Amino acid sequence: MKYCVLFPQAKNVHLIKDVGMIAYKLHKLYSVESYVACYNNDRYDYIDGDLKGLKLDFINKKHNNDIIDGSLYLRKNAKTIDVLQLFHVTARSVVYAMVYKHYNRNGKIFLKLDCTENLLNKIKSLSTAGRKFFNYFFKKVDIIGVEQKKLFNEMQLLLPNFKEKFKYIPNGIDYDLFKSRNIKFENKENNILHVGRLGAEEKNSEMLVEAFVKLNEINNDLPWNLILVGESTEAFTQYVENCIRKHPSLRDKIKQTGPISNRKELIDIYAKSKIFCLTSHFESFGIVLIEAAALGNIIVSTNVGIANELVAYNGGSLIEDSNIEDLTNKLSYYISNGDIERLSSNNVNLIQENYDWDKVVMNLYNEITK
């Protein structure tokens, strides 16, 4: 079987997310011939490292238009592709589906929705013509993956004609890496961890810094650190520096690591932390949430992505978007919670049971080979 993920924008970092991991696991577990088809955008170091066996097939950037270039790629290769993985409900995906099915009627399309509430609202507001076009697209698709249980159930109710095509396919954790990490709670440090594009408007990282400042104003001897991981804008770096100038006692407590591309190094940081905080205004899934929970972090997050499903099992709490007082109180609660070790263990077990890429891909493989 030849499995192709068509995603022209793929860079190295995408390969350790759903863009590369599903194809990689299909190859590793079931000897599927797996490819990611993309422009030559980056140095793809993971191909010869953690994802050995996954292949890249570079798309000719002849027209510098991903719809045209991707369609030309499919015209040339569709007949040899048994399963085509696409992403999102976009004009690009619609065109790719039409071209692929034109040249390979027996081929299967797996559409990974990366579903959000916004998509549901768009579907609800479609005009009659828009609904017909939408239905035409979904008829071309064989498997439609929805990453969150709530949205999966809502999609089935909203589009009952395609109920059998909808499959619950969450994102996952690669336990080939995570199993090797020591996540005994006694080895953890008093760290509140935040991972993301620091300073990006949608990440709202300033909210966490302000809450941490407040925690230390309440207790200047608070023996906890704030670890900020990710590429930072100049404005955010300056913002943190200004906070430290105003509160000199925080100089050794707030630590910016910069971007970390080494997965094992990042996993070690997760493993040493006790609380993971996400303050985003918006996330489609929030892969960092399951990575953090897998390594025993309590989750404190705005109600974005998978956060609501994770905290439902008493492994953390949701916070109100942009409510610094709410975040301060929730962090204070877990910092002083004598039951934090049990909550940490709950999260480790929850992720192993429900978000292991091997299990997720096994279910997808069974659907593909029905």
TrEMBL record:
Glycosyl transferase family domain boundaries: 181-339
SUPFAM superfamilies, per database record: UDP-Glycosyltransferase/glycogen phosphorylase (SSF53756)
Gene Ontology terms for molecular function: glycosyltransferase activity
Cross-referenced Pfam families: Glycos_transf_1
GO terms, biological process: lipopolysaccharide biosynthetic process
Keywords: Transferase
Protein name (record): D-inositol-3-phosphate glycosyltransferase
Species annotation: Clostridium fungisolvens
Organism taxonomic ancestry: Bacteria, Bacillati, Bacillota, Clostridia, Eubacteriales
